[in-house]
Design goal:
Length: 556
């Protein structure tokens, strides 16, 4: 779906599909949601208006963490090359926000030039002033990873007053702006520095409302041994429990994301598995980009509706003549009670309301008499958008995916799922080297050898086979079942193993097929997932010439 990473024909068709959903989102925002936002000054309180590039932009990944947790090194690890403006060191090195984007030529675009580029999605950042723009840049380079995603590096979060005052701009405000627009937020922690400072806590709280985008990485985990790693992981989870108010446990990826030798090699397999899981999550971003934009627009529409009720209620309670300033202070003081009143009157969930303290701060500088009264027509339009237009766009995505697959098949192309490719992602799924994920392990073991890998471990299986009393070299399904259930695997799993082992589909097993069944059982007991189709190298040599189509689980 929406793959712009395949061949030229596939790339063009998939771009058209993405544009169709993006165009639909752009139209319903401009025509139906924007008028409500404008009427009730939504942009002055919450988030700037969305521009066209916000709907067309590639998925973005935001890296956040305290200084020297490996944010910049993580980007370099993904790209497998340096990007313009990179600085790595144990001290606080990255002093600016850097958007690492794809470009034909390497270069750096300063912040002031970047925010006037109508083709980029950063124009609204001009509102944070020159102090921020002097600390913002775009680094471009021709890298395959960046053809699919944009990665945003951030300054390391410091402790003390310098974090809040000496930066000269609203650091948490910038983080909030990015958090609303990115597809994934990666919080990095150093295995040696687990303390969450008050400043870092404030930054994490600024990401509230976007918890579904957050992934946590415990970086530099090779610097501690397996006992220390267990304690470090427990300490991190305890610290996170004090910051994240949700009862669910956050997903933490444990690894070491650089290209240096591991200090402690004992956890190599764990690091590989965790990296594979994280990369799969990141690789799915282009595939889910349209749904993410839909989801963010729905959240924005719900907040805009609540904001309209709040502003109109404040306007309604303001006196027409005298005592305006006194009434304003009273309303701000009792804002939490006004929130409760609106919840009851309009049956709105408390989770849809903005933070009451932030709202109080932003109301201080406003003239309540200039607020607009409630205009039901605008709200009806937004309700219709949520009920009809959004639902239509959501239904359109799988339909267009099916049309794309059919078109690609008709034209002789393989309909490829969109995915992040290149850099470290290529190595993660590399099939041409023995170092790709899962190579030489589990069901891939023996794939590049001439000897049938099952024969090495079949001695015990052959003894069991003879004890089951084969007739003319075969044992029945009943006899095989009595043996296979001793593995204590569920019948559903054993049924799949039988389908894969009975290569010739005759309802009985010969010695080779029985040895294969035992081999598959052992692999499943070791924690490996059964393949949908029996790998060619696992087919018994005696069956390879007579069976050109190898067993599949969906075969009857």
């Amino acid at each position: 779906m929406f793959s712009w990473l395949g061949g030229d024909s596939s790339k063009k068709k998939n771009k058209e599909v993405l544009d169709s959903v993006s165009e639909g989102l752009r139209k319903i925002y401009k025509q139906k949601l924007y008028p409500l936002e404008e009427h009730y000054k939504f942009h002055e309180f919450h988030s700037p208006a969305l521009d066209d590039p916000d709907f067309d932009a590639k998925p973005m990944i935001l890296l956040v963490g305290q200084y020297s947790t490996g944010k910049t090194t993580f980007i370099r690890y993904l790209l497998e090359e340096d990007f313009p403006g990179i600085r790595i060191g144990p001290e606080p090195t990255t002093d600016r926000f850097i958007a690492v984007m794809h470009g034909e030529e390497e270069g750096v675009v300063p912040g002031n030039a970047l925010v006037v580029d109508a083709k980029k999605q950063f124009r609204a950042l001009s509102g944070f002033g020159n102090a921020f723009l002097n600390r913002f840049q775009c680094s471009t380079l021709n890298n395959q990873v960046l053809e699919s995603v944009t990665i945003v590096d951030t300054p390391g979060i410091l402790s003390g007053e310098k974090q809040r005052i000496d930066r000269g701009y609203d650091f948490t405000g910038v983080l909030e702006w990015f958090a609303e627009r990115v597809d994934r937020i990666i919080l990095l922690f150093d295995a040696h520095k687990l303390d969450i400072s008050d400043e870092f806590k404030r930054c994490i709280e600024a990401l509230s409302g976007n918890e579904d985008k957050i992934r946590i990485v415990l970086n530099k985990s090779d610097m501690v041994d397996h006992q220390q790693l267990m304690r470090v992981y427990g300490a991190l989870m305890w610290s996170l429990g004090k910051v994240f108010k949700t009862p669910e446990v956050s997903r933490v990826y444990i690894g070491t994301f650089w290209d240096h030798p591991l200090h402690y090699d004992i956890n190599r397999r764990l690091f590989q598995d965790e990296q594979h899981d994280l990369f799969q999550d990141l690789q799915a971003l282009p595939r889910n980009a349209a749904l993410r934009k839909l989801n963010d627009l729905i959240k924005r529409a719900r907040l805009a509706k609540v904001h309209a009720f709040i502003i109109s209620e404040l306007r309604k309670q303001m006196p027409s003549m005298i005592g305006k300033e006194k009434k304003k202070k009273e309303l701000i003081q009792n804002l939490d009670k006004i929130f409760e009143q609106i919840q009851r009157e309009h049956n709105i969930s408390p989770g849809d309301f903005p933070d009451v303290n932030k709202m109080r701060d932003r109301l201080q500088m406003q003239d309540f008499t200039r607020f607009n009264p409630l205009k039901p027509k605008l709200l009806e339009v937004v309700d219709g958008m949520l009920a009809t237009d959004i639902a239509r766009l959501m239904a359109q995505i799988p339909k267009e995916e099916a049309q794309l697959t059919a078109a690609a098949t008709t034209n002789g192309h393989i309909a490829e799922q969109p995915s992040v490719k290149g850099g470290a992602f290529s190595q993660a799924v590399e099939a041409e080297t023995p170092f790709g994920f899962g190579r030489g392990e589990g069901f891939d073991k023996g794939a590049d050898e001439s000897e049938w890998v099952v024969s090495r471990e079949r001695k015990e299986a052959d003894i069991t086979f003879e004890s089951l009393g084969p007739v003319d070299g075969f044992i029945s399904g009943r006899a095989a079942k009595e043996h296979m259930v001793k593995s204590k695997l569920p019948n559903s799993v054993l049924g799949k193993i039988w389908k894969l082992s009975d290569v010739d589909r005759d309802g009985q097993l010969d010695a080779d097929e029985f040895a294969l069944a035992n081999y598959l059982i052992n692999l499943k007991l070791e924690g490996h997932e059964l393949p949908v189709e029996l790998p060619k190298h696992l087919v018994p040599p005696s069956k390879r010439e007579m069976e050109p189509v190898y067993p599949k689980l969906e075969d009857e």
